[in-house]
Amino acid sequence: MLARMATTTGTRFLAALRAAEPDLRLLTEATDTDAYRYDETAYLEPGHPLGVVFPTSTAQVAAIVRLCAEHRVPLVPRGAGSGLSGGATAIDGALTVVMTQLDRILEIDVANLTATVQPGVINADLGRAAAEHGLFYAPDPASFEFCTIGGNLAENSGGLRCVKYGVTRDAVLGLEVVLADGAVIRSGGKNAKDVLGYDLTHLFIGSEGTLGIITEAILRLRPMPPPMLTLLAFFPSVAAAGEAVAAMTSAGLVPATLELMDRFTIEAVDAAMRIGLDTSAGAMLMVESDLGGAAAEAELKVAADACEAAGSTSVLRAADTTEADWLRQARRKAHWSLEQAGVARMDDVGVPRSRVPQMLAAIEKVATAHSMRIGVFGHAGDGNLHPTYVMDRDDLAAGARIEAARADIYAAALAMGGTVSGEHGTGIAKRSYLVRQRGADSVRVMRSLKDALDPLGILNPGKVLEV
What we know:
The chain is an alpha+beta fold. It folds into four domains: 2-100, 2-Layer Sandwich (Uridine Diphospho-n-acetylenolpyruvylglucosamine Reductase, domain 2), CATH 3.30.43; 105-223, Uridine Diphospho-n-acetylenolpyruvylglucosamine Reductase, domain 3; 229-415, FAD-linked oxidase, cap domain/gating helix (Vanillyl-alcohol Oxidase, Chain A, domain 3); 427-456. It has helices spanning 2-20, 30-33, 58-71, 123-131, 149-155, 162-165, 200-204, 238-250, 263-273, 293-309, 321-332, 334-339, 356-369, 398-415, 434-438, 440-453; strands spanning 25-27, 51-54, 75-78, 95-98, 105-109, 114-117, 135-136, 172-178, 184-188, 213-220, 222-223, 229-235, 257-262, 283-289, 314-317, 343-346, 349-350, 373-379, 384-391. The strands form four sheets. Strands 12, 13, 14, 15, 16, 17, 18 and 19 form an eight-stranded antiparallel sheet that branches. A five-stranded antiparallel sheet has the order 5-6-10-8-9. Helix 1 packs antiparallel against helix 3 (58-71), helix 8 (238-250) crosses helix 10 (293-309) and helix 13 (356-369) packs antiparallel against helix 14 (398-415). The relative contact order is 0.12.
């Protein structure tokens, strides 16, 4: 009976949607909608959507949300689907709202150092547009060539330059948001300082579409820094690399990037890209400075000294900007390279920067205890590491084995005062750890916010918070 009622509700809703928005692209056949069920998180099995729509304006998004509220149909906002926590995965009987057609850069305001963009803009496209004006958009997830600004906002994404410039939240000045009743609000603006009322802008960032749907953003731009100088250091072990990171932190070094790869990841990247990395090394650090001139040279000298004191086997400098770009691309391809060795599920933990050596040791211990291949890479400069479980493609128990290893890695991170999600969001994959990390009272406040902004519970239900 319930299934029949759900089918009837869905049919009525789709008919109403077609009547209200006849120009809206709507997919309902499973062969068409299947591609929009998944994100990049391996071993998650999403639901089957009622339909998939592609709005082209804020007004159209608002109309869709109003109809969903009227018919009690849940909806899932989605960008490029590059997320790694299940935040954009489909829900049975829900409408998936793909935001990629709202893809205009509305303004580059040189005088105020801002960009106003729609959520479907690709991160790299914004970077290129800003560069034409001598400006720079700092957030740069590894997927920057295809992830969208809306997805970055929904997940509060990070990237290679986080150690110096912060995560997506730190580049946002204002938002336009469609609420659960179809109302459209604006928060923030171009003002450098604005503290009137509650900070709604940052409330929506990282909420994964559970509190509202972002349809426009005002983002902070910076003057373009000088070309980066790049240093590579190889170590006999991840422990030695971790000690170098801790020494740089203690020395007050804040490079533009400070990235780590372990031996497994070095081997995978070199096999996939054939760039001549030292595959005999236990770990590698990539350190970059964008200070320019003598200041950059001095910064890399401090980094090189820290690496040598920690026992590095070699310290190398990129010959020119082309080689530096090549090496940076190799780091961005770490997850893809590990996928060539099996089914790779990238995880995301963070610890205080001084605890990076201990966290690296804990991950190695977990890999040994579970007899698993766990490649480690990530943003060592801000304590954000990506242990990546690489499983045989025919391992039917892979999902369960990963869950057991994750539990041990998460326990280690939390014991060090860390987090089970540094930049990949909560989604489905991490929601069961929310109370453990944040505490029951904090989660109660989160539920109160959700209930206040989405009383019908139609916005991405089951993501971040358990239903």
